Amino acid sequence: MLLRAAPLMLLIGLAALQPQPAIASSSEREELRLAVERGQVRPMSQFLGEVERRHNGRVIEAELDRHRGRIVWEVKILPAQGRTFKVRLDAATGVEIPRDSRD
């Protein structure tokens, strides 16, 4: 049981260590925490290898957040070229969310 709970505990711990946006209220943080507990959010570790391969770089930061009503992983990547950039992943599926001009 402890081994089964370890990934969830790690995810909650990592999410808690990440800085929260200034606009995030305590109720928004609680909602994200509950989504993790319910299994509606998958751990970033499940997506890490694929994201690094797809973008030919290293993930240097990941933060659980909300974007347009969806729970997302905001991921900062350091590619071989050296200029960091961010991508968003749907936190339930790992599908990359395309950026548009409003982002």
From TrEMBL:
Keywords: Signal
PepSY domain: residues covered: 51-95
Biological source species: Roseococcus pinisoli
UniProt key word Signal: yes
Pfam families (alphabetical): PepSY (PF03413)
Signal peptide: 1-24
Transmembrane segments: none
Protein name: PepSY domain-containing protein
